[in-house]
Amino acid sequence: MPKTRHYYGWYITLALAITETISWGIVYYAFSVFMTPMQTDLGWSRAEITGGFSLALLVTGAMAYPVGWWVDRHGARWLMTIGSIVATLLVMAWSQVTTLTGFYVIWTGLGVCSASILYEPAFAVMSTWFVRRRSTALAIVTFAAGLASTIFLPLSDMLLNTFGWRDAILGLGVFLGVTTIPLHALVLRHRPQDVGYLPDGDIYISPESSGKMVSGVSLSEALHNRYFWLLTLAFSLSYLSAAAIRVHFIPFLIDEGIDASIAAYTSGAIGLMQVAGRVVFAPLDSRWSTRVMVTGVFALQSVAMLILLIGVSLWSIGLFILIFGAAYGARTLARPSLLAEVFGVSYYGRISSVMVIFLTLASTLAPVGAGWFYDAFGSYDLMLWVIFVLAIAASGVILFATPQSAYLPLEIPSVPQDIELESYATTLT
């Protein structure tokens, strides 16, 4: 039985922590920085510009199941590598766009790429390589990626002010390629069984016995589980509420009289609070049920929306960032933990992808809907009331939903823990 001091799953975790941070920062968060300069330069309305972003989200949802199926069957290595290559080319093409049609074509392609490089395939990888330490692995990846907005919103604004929006986006595209492509291609692997270990790197197994280590329910069983659909409804309502304000937060602050650069830095601060929310969630998740934790997260999101409704001032913006950011970050960690806990990992990619279809529809409707409210009423006031009600509804659904037992978790044989492995994992985490 070989030593497991250098369990490969931790290298994959660290690689994904880096690539997810960069991919989210450039493909998702940077968009809001370039909305206003694109509107000024190209003459498109805010709804037309956010329409491209929403189209990408819609395509991401449509690709969720094919991506989940592929990851379950073949792993994420080449999927994420090719996705990074194409995303790099499309971001560079975005920097040269001149027509609305071309803009929509580019963001349609980025929607396909997003499905293959953002959280969903990464979460499937973590769920495959870890069981007992799944929360720790997910926390490492999402902890780092939670800084994406904190890093890339100010960075994008700095590049915008220095080089203009076109060269700024071009530079971001180049950076996306040189960082994420080699990490995905050289580090990712399919399953721990392929390199002779169980999840968490506990013991050596033969390739012939690897088929015995899968656990969980089938996709069909999950889709016939009422609790799955209640979870999907609750998270969809939460995504509707959060995505609307998250994408429009910088334009909202600018409309409230705040300088554009300060608005970008302020919005980036939400990322710091996302990290704080995940730091708090990870240890508490072992003390309370995930359902209780998710209910609390949704309730905090409602409180954050209420703060903006009371009035916009320096203290209210700061308090909103603190509460909303923490809830936003914890929610990202809570969903994969809850799904893997209730439904297992055998078909995690496909089960999660079905939920993602609905979450993506919600995230697609939210930014363009908020843009429509703004164009129709000349302010974000009505939008704030709508997202507050949606956040309250999400809290209510998850609070009164009754979990149904979906499967018996995999029992991993008790073996003495390698002291060196414990030390190594502690150092990494």
Q: Report the radius of gyration as a whole number of Å.
A: 21 Å
Order of secondary-structure elements: HHHHHHHHHHHHHHHHHH
CATH superfamily: MFS general substrate transporter like domains
In terms of per-residue confidence, which ranges show pLDDT below 50 for 5 or more consecutive residues?
A: 205-214, 405-429
What is the CATH topology?
A: Growth Hormone, Chain: A
Count of helical stretches = 18
Count structural domains.
Answer: 1
Overall morphology: globular
Task: Explain what the structure shows.
This protein has 429 residues and is mainly alpha-helical. It has a single domain, classed as Growth Hormone, Chain: A (Up-down Bundle), CATH 1.20.1250. The protein is built from 18 helices and no strands. Helix 1 runs antiparallel to helix 10, helix 7 packs antiparallel against helix 8 and helix 12 runs antiparallel to helix 13. The longest helix is centred in the middle third of the chain and has 30 residues. The radius of gyration is 21 Å and the shape is globular.
Fold topology:
Blueprint: H1 8-29, H2 31-42, H3 46-62, H4 64-74, H5 77-94, H6 100-117, H7 119-129, H8 134-145, H9 148-163, H10 165-187, H11 219-223, H12 226-255, H13 260-284, H14 290-310, H15 314-343, H16 348-377, H17 381-400, H18 419-428
Helix pairs in contact: 1-7, 1-8, 1-9, 1-10, 2-3, 2-12, 3-6, 3-16, 4-7, 4-16, 5-6, 5-10, 7-8, 7-16, 8-13, 8-15, 9-10, 9-13, 12-13, 12-16, 12-17, 13-15, 14-15, 14-17
